[in-house]
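re: ur question from yesterday

yeah so i grabbed the chain u mentioned. its 227 aa long if i counted rite. heres the sequnce exactly as i have it in my notes:
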Amino acid sequence: MKPALETQDLAHYIDHTLLRAEATASDFQKLCAEAVQNRFFAVCVPGRSVKLSKTALANSQVKIASVVGFPLGNQSPKSKAFEASLAISDGADEIDMVISLGAIKEKNWEFVAEDIQCVVQAVSGKTVKVILETHLLNVEEKTKAIECCLKAKAHFIKTSTGFSGGGATLEDVTLMKKIVGNQIKIKASGGIKSFEQAISFIQAGADRLGTSSGVALVNHQLSAGGY
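ran it thru and got these structure tokens back, copy pasting raw so excuse formatting
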């Protein structure tokens, strides 16, 4: 467990996220403006909005994460690799890819590792986060999938898309941390709407939080005077 974070700024953990299918250009402009104002670590946006975000975030320190294989993960490894490389060329700094759940259920671990590795290799050292969709997996499947992430040299494991009926849980983040230690970072994502949730995930080992409620979370921190 991490030590108390009395002097840390919650904003630096947040990937300010907008992935709704109906989101418009003005919605993404607003997202980026909020990210700059609140000093969030990154925005997380779909591929079509990467260029817009790059322009909106010019001269700021806010990073851009883009999703790949979202939200189901059923695309081929080569398709995900192309999508990732295109997002990077458009200005993304990080890739959040959805793992192949069907391959996990088949226990086709070679395919799972290849799926991840294709994206890692396609983006030439840029940060890759692998979305496990933990609420659809049992403990053995989570463990094996995480081992594939380590084998493929991904940079983060991530709990959820938030689009399949489940989200981050403290139990899953704790399990992830127990398995990986300091070998790989952890992103908790999906359903993080309260300040208390956010802090509990960080204390359990999360290095990043994916949430559409970032503004409300940091406003709570400011009104409370910190952690």
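noticed a couple things. The chain is about 45% helix and 15% strand. also Residues 3-7 have pLDDT under 50 and may be disordered.
anyway ttyl
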